[in-house]
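Reviewers of the previous submission asked for a worked example of the structure-prediction workflow described in the proposal, so we include one complete record here. The input consisted solely of the amino acid sequence. No template or homolog information was supplied to the procedure at any stage.
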Amino acid sequence: MLSNKNPYQEQFHELLDEIREEVQSLNDEIKELKKENSDLRSKLKEIQDGQTDIYSAISESERLSLRHQVLGLISKIDNHLEDNQ
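From that input alone, the workflow returned the following structure tokens.
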């Protein structure tokens, strides 16, 4: 008959216990990371809800003026690049 004191069985059970501890540790870490992820998502949502994009914060006339200024700058850059060729 096989004895319960078989060294291979003891080693197997020790290794199995180590694996169980590692799995438990990883499960705990996953739980912590999920909570942290949830907290970060909540903070991100709060920040996003508090922000408005640049165009919704200005009036239509200000938008048109800004667009005109940008188009003017682009035109100047194009002219400068064409002159240097």
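The mean pLDDT is 88. We consider this example representative of the routine output the project will generate in years two and three.
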